Amino acid sequence: MPCHISATSFPIAFLVNFLLFLTQYYCVFLEATTILANSSTLVDGSFNATCIEEERNALLEFKHGLGDPLSVLDSWVGKDCCKWDGIVCNNRTGNVIKLLLSDKQISGTISVSIGSLSHLETFDLYNNSISGPFPTSIGNLSHLQTLYLSFNSISGQIPMSIGSLSHLETLDLSWNSISGPLPTSIGNLSHLQTLDLSNNSISGPLPTSIGNLSHLQTLVLSGNSISEYLGLAGNRFSELLPLNNGHEMSKLRALDLSSNNLSGRVPSFLSKIKSLVFLDLSSNYLSGNITRDWMGLQNLTIIDFSNNNLSGQIPNSMCSPSQLSSLKWLRLNNNKLSGDLESSLQNCRTLLVLDLTGNKFSGALPKWVGGSLHSLSYLRLGANKFTGNIPEQLCGFSYLQVLELSHNNLSGSIPRCLGNLKQMKTGGGMLEDWMSNMTIEETITVEGFDPMHMLLNLKGVEYDYAYRIARFIRMFDLSINEN
Ligand SMILES: *[C@@H]1O[C@H](CO)[C@@H](O)[C@H](O)[C@H]1NC(C)=O
Ligand SMILES: *[C@@H]1O[C@H](CO)[C@@H](O)[C@H](O)[C@H]1NC(C)=O
Ligand SMILES: *[C@@H]1O[C@H](CO)[C@@H](O)[C@H](O)[C@H]1NC(C)=O
Ligand SMILES: *[C@@H]1O[C@H](CO)[C@@H](O)[C@H](O)[C@H]1NC(C)=O
Ligand SMILES: *[C@@H]1O[C@H](CO)[C@@H](O)[C@H](O)[C@H]1NC(C)=O
Ligand SMILES: *[C@@H]1O[C@H](CO)[C@@H](O)[C@H](O)[C@H]1NC(C)=O
Ligand SMILES: *[C@@H]1O[C@H](CO)[C@@H](O)[C@H](O)[C@H]1NC(C)=O
Ligand SMILES: *[C@@H]1O[C@H](CO)[C@@H](O)[C@H](O)[C@H]1NC(C)=O
Ligand SMILES: *[C@@H]1O[C@H](CO)[C@@H](O)[C@H](O)[C@H]1NC(C)=O
Ligand SMILES: *[C@@H]1O[C@H](CO)[C@@H](O)[C@H](O)[C@H]1NC(C)=O
Ligand SMILES: *[C@@H]1O[C@H](CO)[C@@H](O)[C@H](O)[C@H]1NC(C)=O
Ligand SMILES: *[C@@H]1O[C@H](CO)[C@@H](O)[C@H](O)[C@H]1NC(C)=O
């Protein structure tokens, strides 16, 4: 049956696009680290300040504990440590300012002696096999701007002394085995712009001091066991949060707290962070109604609250002109949301992705289907309680690539015009355009979660297509193939 093949090929095309998208991100990433790794050679020819004895000894002590299968550290001999691979010195003072050893398969622990490199500005051990805990002496690196240790096996807690790194702008410790709570001293890092602690075993509440990080733009804490927002239980976040004293997180663009242990309501203070572009609270234990007030969040583009216990209706206010006027991505799948959708989302004109699968929505398929949501590319309404006919208006979605209506109580016939939906056949379109236009910052956060979610979902859809009684999808296929 050729129709079957054509049906599954839509999501596969989509999936391939996501994978391409992921690859793109990694390319950007690798380029960046290569440039860093090469800057030492730039300095080589011209500087003449030689290395400082104490720092040289500290580096040798650091090297002593490391396994180095690629023999990268063989160049670490002789007097002038400024000429060693991966080391960049200040050419006037001779102080080591950069330690750049990403992707070198280096193993072992970070020596206490690292604390002697007190002028270090960049410490990059991205993607090695570094294990063991942080030495407390890391707090001595008071000039550090970039600490980049992701993709290692670092364990233990983040030491309190991290709070002394007052110039730190980027702290990326993602993909390690760090445990315990975040130290409150994290609130001291007043220049921090990016904090990525995803995929560790960090637990407990977030320290309130995180609300003091006024330059923070990206906060990624997914894949941990963080249990409460900003250390405050219950529903009184907005009163207690240090949001009104001039230290608010007024630059925060991305907040990713997915796959944690959060419970209680979606905290209302979130709607006070007007700068948000990306908000992912998926795969937690959040319950109660979705926040009504999204006033002024004109840049919020991506909302993912999927896999929680949210109930009640989608607030009508979502997507009113003064609220969420940029929303492109709304995933509320696998919650307990109910009601009919007639008026809820009709103003979400910029929406590209809408996933409401696995809720308790009822009534007829809403009239906005194919009406006001011109750009919608990905629509999943499966596993709900929708009744009635599939409206002709569905054919108004000229960019639709993925449509899922299975596991509802729909009846009647399939509108023939569905077979004419161009993007269904060709792929490409609005969604890919938008994703390829994302800023690197957005991509960084999206990279960690979207392709994964999509893979899972698409697998689900494929599975539906192939094995389940997804009668609408199958009939839908037929109508496409009639063309
Ligand atoms: C440094 O850059 C050159 C080209 O400019 C490249 O051939 C070389 O592989 C780079 N070295 C490292 C260690 O990345
Ligand atoms: C010293 O370093 C600075 C910036 O790192 C660079 O602009 C300058 O050209 C260097 N001078 C020498 C003599 O290498
Ligand atoms: C360092 O190099 C510069 C030129 O690159 C030269 O003028 C200066 O005398 C050198 N200083 C020392 C201490 O060798
Ligand atoms: C880490 O480095 C290895 C090679 O040492 C490479 O194969 C792998 O793709 C890198 N992983 C990441 C996440 O960059
Ligand atoms: C911290 O740095 C100072 C020099 O700035 C050095 O004397 C001291 O030993 C360092 N402490 C540790 C624990 O590395
Ligand atoms: C945090 O900053 C304050 C004031 O800048 C300082 O007194 C305190 O020692 C810092 N705490 C830590 C743990 O670094
Ligand atoms: C977290 O990282 C470890 C390796 O450090 C990896 O095996 C695991 O799959 C990652 N978990 C998630 C949820 O990404
Ligand atoms: C936030 O910063 C202010 C002023 O610097 C300070 O008084 C307050 O204690 C800090 N709050 C937290 C929770 O660290
Ligand atoms: C998650 O929260 C539940 C209670 O809400 C608790 O029993 C469980 O231990 C928590 N898990 C972690 C890893 O903190
Ligand atoms: C929204 O984004 C624009 C463009 O990046 C920026 O100029 C504006 O300040 C942002 N608005 C808020 C409330 O952060
Ligand atoms: C939750 O929403 C429902 C309707 O959607 C409403 O009846 C109820 O009062 C709301 N509950 C709270 C606590 O706001
Ligand atoms: C993507 O960027 C291009 C060029 O900047 C622009 O013409 C196009 O409209 C953008 N597409 C979307 C979907 O934002």
Helicity, as a percent range = 10-25%
Which outline best applies? Answer: elongated
Largest sheet: 14 strands, mixed
Can you identify the CATH superfamily?
Ribonuclease Inhibitor
Are any ligands bound, and if so which? 2-acetamido-2-deoxy-beta-D-glucopyranose
CATH topology: Leucine-rich repeat, LRR (right-handed beta-alpha superhelix)
CATH class assignment: Alpha Beta
DSSP summary, beta strand count: 28
| Count of separate structural domains | 1
Number of helices: 7
Q: Span from first to last CA?
A: 15 Å
* Rounded Rg: 26 Å
Low-confidence stretches: 1-47, 230-247, 443-483
Mean pLDDT equals 73
Strand order of the largest sheet: 2-3-5-7-9-11-13-15-17-19-21-23-25-27
Report the structural category: alpha/beta
Content of β-strand: 15-25%
Report the CATH architecture: Alpha-Beta Horseshoe
Question: What are the defining features of this structure?
Answer:
seven-stranded mixed β-sheet; 14-stranded mixed β-sheet; binds 2-acetamido-2-deoxy-beta-D-glucopyranose; Leucine-rich repeat, LRR (right-handed beta-alpha superhelix); disordered C terminus; repeat; disordered N terminus; receptor; alpha/beta; single chain; 483 residues; LRR_R13L4/SHOC2-like
